[in-house]
Write a structure and sequence with these properties.
mainly beta, 12-stranded antiparallel beta barrel, Porin
Length: 289
C-alpha cells in the first residue's frame, strides 16, 4: 500500500500534467467532467438529461469492495432553475445488494449573465440508508460505516444539504469551488461540513464544423479534490476523508457524454480508491432541437 507522501507526490504530478499547455476554449457547458464538483452551468430550459453512473470502492484494511450505481434525471425547469432526481443502490462483495434511497436536488443561478465568479445555490433533500456508497459528496468525519449490509440497509436517514457553488471560466479553464453544509434531520446532531474543488478544460480549440467523434475538442480533462471538514461540534481535518481524482469526459455527440475518474484516498479514513464511470444523454423536450 502506498504511503501518504507517495500519494501526495502522485497528486502533484497529475496536477502538473493537467495544468500544462494552453487551450483557448472553455469546456462544454453541460455534461461536466466532474463527478462530485458542480460548476455554474445549468440544464437548458425544457431539456431532460438521463444519466447512469457508478462508484466502485476499493477500501483499505481488507474491507469488502463495493459498487454503487445511480440514475440521474435532470430537467431544466427554467433558465435559472434545474431540478434533479437521483435513485441509488449498492452491491457489496460477499454481502449482496440493496436499494439505498433517493435524492431530490435543485440548483438556482441568481445571476444569468456570465461573470468572473458565477454563484449557484444548491439545495438537496436526501432519503437514504447508511448503506449509501455513491459518495456524491463527503461531509463530516470518520470512515464509511463498516457494519454488514444487512444492518446498514435498515438504518434510514433524512438529510438536508446545501452548497454554495462558485464557478469561473478563465482562458479555456473551468475553475469551480463548492462549500457544503449538511444537516441530518433524523438525528439530534450538529451540522456537517465538506468541500469540493475542480479544474477542467477541453483538449482542443474551436470545433471545425465537420462531424468528428475523436476530435480533441470533444475531450475534456481535469482534476477534482473533495473531502470532509468535520462538524459544528468539532470543525477541522482530524479523522476526515479526502480524495483527489483526475477526470475525463468524452462528448461522443452533441447530446451524449461518457466520463470516468479514478480517485485516490489521501487519509487513513478514506477508501483506498474510488473508480467512477458515467454515461449521459440529453433529450430536448422543450428546448433546442
Amino acid at each position: 500500500m502506498n504511503s501518504l507522501p507517495d500519494k501526495r507526490r502522485l497528486a502533484t504530478v497529475l496536477l502538473a500534467v493537467l495544468f500544462s499547455g494552453t487551450v483557448p476554449r472553455a469546456a462544454f457547458a453541460q455534461d461536466r467532467a466532474y463527478f462530485v464538483t458542480y460548476d455554474h452551468y445549468l440544464e437548458e430550459r425544457g431539456n431532460l438529461e438521463i444519466a447512469v453512473a457508478s462508484t466502485t470502492g476499493l477500501p483499505k484494511q481488507d474491507r469488502p469492495s463495493y459498487i454503487a450505481p445511480w440514475i440521474e434525471l435532470e430537467y431544466g425547469i427554467t433558465g435559472w432553475w434545474t431540478g434533479e432526481l437521483y435513485l441509488e443502490g449498492v452491491a457489496v462483495n460477499g454481502q449482496g445488494s440493496a436499494f439505498t434511497g433517493w435524492r431530490w436536488e435543485s440548483r438556482f443561478r441568481p445571476l444569468t449573465t456570465e461573470r468572473l465568479i458565477n454563484p449557484v445555490v444548491y439545495v438537496e433533500f436526501e432519503d437514504i440508508t447508511e448503506a449509501s456508497r455513491i459518495q456524491k459528496e463527503i461531509v463530516g468525519r470518520g470512515p464509511l460505516p463498516a457494519a454488514p449490509l444487512d444492518e446498514l440497509r435498515d438504518e434510514h436517514a433524512r438529510e438536508l444539504e446545501a452548497k454554495l457553488i462558485l464557478s469561473s471560466a478563465v482562458r479555456g479553464w473551468n475553475i469551480s469551488e463548492n462549500v457544503i453544509v449538511e444537516k441530518n434531520l433524523s438525528e439530534d446532531e450538529g451540522l456537517e461540513f465538506g468541500y469540493s474543488v475542480g479544474a477542467s478544460r477541453a483538449l482542443g480549440g474551436l470545433a471545425s464544423g465537420a462531424p468528428c467523434r475523436l476530435c480533441r475538442e470533444n475531450f475534456v480533462v481535469g482534476v477534482e479534490a473533495y473531502g470532509g471538514l468535520g462538524d459544528s461540534n468539532d470543525f477541522g481535518l482530524a479523522d476526515t476523508r479526502h480524495f483527489i481524482a483526475p477526470v475525463m469526459a468524452w462528448h461522443f455527440s452533441d447530446r451524449m457524454t461518457i466520463k470516468a475518474s479514478a480517485a485516490f484516498g489521501l487519509t487513513d479514513a478514506s477508501d483506498g480508491y474510488l473508480l467512477r464511470f458515467g454515461w449521459a444523454y440529453e433529450f430536448p423536450l422543450g428546448g433546442r432541437r
